[in-house]
Amino acid sequence: MRQVTGTGRQIAWSALVVLAFLGASQPGRAQDAPPPPVTVAKPVVKDVVEYDDFIGRFEPVDQVDIRARVSGYVDKINFTDGSVVKPGDLLFTIDQRPYQAALDEAQASLESAKARVDFAQGDVARAENLRKSGNITGQIYDERAQTLATAQADVNRAQATLNRAKLDLQFTEIRAPIAGRMSRHLVSLGNLVNANDTVLSNIVSMDPINFYFDVDERSFLAYQKLSTGSLRTSNDGALNEVLVATSDENEPTHKGHLDFTDNRLDNASGTIRARAILDNKDLSLVPGLFGRIRILGSDKYKGVLVPEDAIGSDQDRRVVYVVGADNTISLQPVRVGSRVDGYRVIRVGLKGDETIVVNGLMRVRPGIKVDPKLMTLPPVAVASMAN
């Protein structure tokens, strides 16, 4: 019994030594660590007007496929691929010789018909005198009058043929129907083109230019409630001014105005198509470019604004960390809006009198105490605040 007891004491003593060693090598307990330092601030509260951004694409106001109105062989190409043209500029010429010959033939037919009318008029005049003296029957007079009427109808027919021949000759010169930029020529010299069928090239207008974009159903319903009516088009462009940015621009600078909203929402996508029109004097905006349009999203109201870096994520929620009176952190879900003056608008979740963490979000979690260092946010953010 004494040997067993002695062995047990040795084992217990060894265990106590090991535990003491391990306890000495471990750091202090978590509750003994100092509160993590964080930067806190009050949200910026001021009058704001929100704007919403949507993605869209530039499209020409007018675009035309250039086709010939008469058949024939391409004789001349009178423009440079990609050039800017004015209405009436000559683009293509179809071989005019067959149509000039048809015009000359129609002119000769008209002259012949006119000569027959002159002769028939003389016959009718002589028959009129003879009928008065009783030297000609009424039947002969009627026949000569009928001949005159037929000759006059032939003149009208010949005139119509001549007019058609003139039009065909005129149509051999294919001119620009609108002002704009030409594409490349799709047929070469000597090719046969079919009337109203073969596409020779195409032209798109450049100034002004349209911008089409889709608005989701939720935003559309919100716009309907605005006193300004952001998607209500008007002949007065100042009522619905917009700004558009191309994909290489950080901020929109191209001014325009809304001039069209579709009459129904698309069932498949739940969006409605809208259009803005912009001046494009320098032709820098090209049809087909993507862009971002900024439109009025709210009336003026007292907004609560926080830095973008003060907003965190908790699963599918956006949150901010609020510092209580005892420096304890609590989690506050929020619904964010658009960017205004470098800040993010908080539409739901904050009243504006809270103290929130703006720097050091990675060091905080709900329920812990922090060492807050208060700062004052400027009315307009000059730079993004890093964690």
Architecture overview:
The protein is α+β, with helices and mostly antiparallel strands and 387 residues long. The protein has three domains: 32-48 and 301-375, conserved putative lor/sdh protein from methanococcus maripaludis s2 fold (Beta Barrel); 52-62 and 208-296, Beta Barrel (Elongation Factor Tu (Ef-tu), domain 3); 70-203, OB fold (Dihydrolipoamide Acetyltransferase, E2P) (Beta Barrel). It has four helices and 23 strands. The chain has a six-stranded antiparallel β-sheet with strand order 2-17-21-20-19-18, with no helix packed on it. A six-stranded antiparallel beta barrel has the order 3-12-15-14-13-16. Strands 4-11-9-6 form a four-stranded antiparallel β-sheet, with no helix packed on it. A hairpin with a 2-residue loop joins strand 18 and strand 19 (317-323). Helix 2 packs antiparallel against helix 3 (138-171). The longest helix has 37 residues, at 97-133. The radius of gyration is 43 Å and the shape is rod-shaped. Residues 16-22 have low confidence and may be disordered.
Features:
single chain; about 375 residues; alpha+beta; conserved putative lor/sdh protein from methanococcus maripaludis s2 fold; Elongation Factor Tu (Ef-tu), domain 3; OB fold (Dihydrolipoamide Acetyltransferase, E2P); 3 domains; six-stranded antiparallel beta barrel; 4 helices; 23 strands; about 35% strand; rod-shaped; coiled coil; MdtA-like_C; MdtA-like_b-barrel; MdtA-like_BSH
Radius of gyration: 43 Å
CATH architecture heading of the largest domain: Beta Barrel
Low-confidence stretches: 16-22
> Helical stretch count?
4
At the fold tier of CATH, the topology name of the largest domain is OB fold (Dihydrolipoamide Acetyltransferase, E2P)
- Name of the CATH superfamily of the largest domain: RNA polymerase II/Efflux pump adaptor protein, barrel-sandwich hybrid domain
* Main sheet attributes: strand count, strand direction, barrel closure: 6 strands, antiparallel
- Rounded average pLDDT: 85
Main CATH class of the largest domain:
Mainly Beta
- Give the neighbour order of strands across the main sheet: 2-17-21-20-19-18
The number of domains is: 3
Quaternary structure of the protein: single chain
| Global outline | rod-shaped
What is the number of beta strands?
Answer: 23
Distance between the termini: 66 Å
**Could you spell the SSE succession in H and E letters?**
HEEEEEEEHHEEEEEHEEEEEEEEEEE
Specify the structural class. alpha+beta
Beta-strand content bin: 25-35%
